[in-house]
Specification:
The chain is α/β, with parallel strands linked by helices and 385 residues long. α4 packs across α5. It folds into four domains: 44 residues, no CATH class; 82 residues, Molybdopterin biosynthesis moea protein, domain 3 (Molybdopterin biosynthesis moeA protein, domain 3, Beta Complex), CATH 2.170.190.11; 141 residues, MoaB/Mog-like domain (Molybdenum Cofactor Biosythetic Enzyme, Chain A, 3-Layer(aba) Sandwich), CATH 3.40.980; 69 residues, Beta Barrel (Beta-clip), CATH 2.40.340.10. It has a six-stranded mixed beta sheet with strand order 7-4-6-5-9-8, with no helix packed on it. The chain binds ligand LQZAQKY5 and molybdate ion. The site of ligand LQZAQKY5 has 26 residues, from β13 and α6.
Length: 385
């Protein structure tokens, strides 16, 4: 995972529309172009007054101001205006009294309330002043941050944009769901699985290409997608079989191999490399292997590409509710179900099967030298969502 973090660079900053910036990270500080609020504003429906120590009640009503009115009037001591929430208070008004605490008789306002300076007035610039920093470089644009920038009138932000992604599906045996299966064929499921996993995190600029187990076709397809994408995810054809052409084609295309094969289960033959500025993951075709590699490696790479300054896949330590005997010497990511402080390792851990993955909300990680874990033991758990 460390190798992914050090080798994946953030995309060059671009200005994009604020409405398209959800969950991206600011590439530069943003300063407020205005005072917010831009004028003294009433926080209540009621009456704005100008009082002093000699005049605390029986105000003379002189005007009405509602939200949106372009009214910059001033009051004399002892005067009041009818006012509504969000309306500009008279420029020198020093309190707003809620209408519930008032009565009006013959144009005179009586109040049943204490007067304090600037009660119920939102002062100009009290949230932020013009030229002050609104959000810092690296800030995540969640809905509140997007709303905040919109309150300042901002429509565009400089961010590290989302990557253009290509998914390449390899395999002669694969047919699209919805068509009948001939003997020897299986339904192709990695494309939709990866596409929806990506879409869930907001990554939707995806080109899907399918290629048969043919060296020249694989090379041509990979050459094209590498040229057109920031991130290429390849499914299958990365192991050692005579018809696994992905590794050979990638190297022939002068891809820099950063790692190939990891001591982990599932996902042993995972390939990670770079070609020019394009990041490439060749995922094992086994569906559970492909998805595990997606969660553990690709989600981190995506966050790095969009400039997340402090991402690491969320992990927690949970108490195991069942025993598990680990056979091999690879580290294992095990499909699991976390409930509160407990986690259960599910059955059906095969890389070729998705039945237990479909019920999982976590992956328990056991180090390579672990032989078994007992009920009640604490285990490292990746939460997947
Ligand atoms: N002699 C060895 N054989 C294998 C090794 C090994 O070390 N030595 N490693 C095994 C492991 S572990 C894995 S994982 C697989 C990975 O193989 P590939 O990445 O080359 O993937 P394929 O052979 O193309 O497919 C594997 C398996 O998954 C099915 N598949 C592939 N793509 C899809 C898809 N899009 N949708 C659904 N199912 C898919 C495919 O039919 C195969 O059954 O290699 C082992 N072999
Ligand atoms: O490493 Mo493979 O992904 O176990 O089946």
């Amino acid at each position: 995972m460390e190798m992914v973090n050090t080798n994946v660079l953030s995309k060059k900053p671009e200005k994009i529309l604020l409405k398209d910036a959800l969950d991206l990270f600011l590439a530069e500080d943003v300063f407020s172009p205005i005072n917010m609020p831009p004028f003294n504003q009433s926080a209540m429906d009621g009456f704005a007054v100008l009082f002093d120590e000699t005049h605390q009640n029986n105000f003379t009503l002189v005007d009405e101001i509602k939200a949106g009115d372009n009214n910059k009037r001033k009051l004399n001591i002892g005067e009041a205006v009818r006012i509504f929430t969000g309306a500009p208070t008279p420029t020198n008004a020093n309190a707003v009294i809620m209408q519930e605490n008032t009565s009006v008789e013959n144009g005179v306002l009586n109040i049943d309330d204490t007067l304090t300076d600037y009660k119920n007035i939102r002062l100009e610039g009290e949230q932020i002043k013009q030229k002050q920093i609104a959000l810092q470089k690296g800030a995540k644009l969640n809905p509140a941050a997007i709303g905040f920038l919109a309150t300042l009138g901002i429509t565009e932000v400089s961010v590290h944009p989302k990557p253009k992604i290509s998914i390449v599906i390899t395999g002669n045996e694969l047919v699209t769901p919805g068509t009948p299966l001939a003997f020897g064929q299986i339904y192709e499921s990695n494309a939709i699985m990866l596409q929806t996993a990506l879409a869930k995190k907001g990554f939707t600029d995806i080109t899907l290409v399918k290629v048969k187990d043919d060296y020249n076709d694989t090379k041509t397809v990979l050459n094209n997608v590498i040229e057109q994408s920031d991130l290429v995810l390849i499914s299958g054809g990365i192991s050692v079989g005579d018809y696994d052409f992905v590794g050979k084609a990638l190297l022939e295309l002068k891809t820099q191999q950063i790692f190939y094969k990891i001591k982990q289960k599932p996902g042993k033959p995972l390939f990670f490399g770079k070609n020019q500025n394009t990041i490439i993951f060749a995922l094992p075709g086994n569906p559970a292997s492909a998805l595990t590699c997606y969660y553990i490696y690709i989600e981190s790479a995506l966050q790095k590409i969009i400039g997340n300054p402090n991402y690491s896949k969320p992990t927690t330590t949970l108490t195991l509710s069942n025993e598990y005997i680990k056979k091999g010497t690879r580290g294992e990511f095990l499909k699991a179900k976390a409930t509160g402080s407990e986690v259960e390792i599910l059955g059906s851990q095969s890389s070729a099967m998705l039945n237990s993955f479909a019920q999982a909300n976590a992956l328990v990680y056991l180090e390579d030298d672990v032989k078994m874990v007992k009920k009640g033991e604490k285990v490292k758990t990746y939460i997947i969502d």
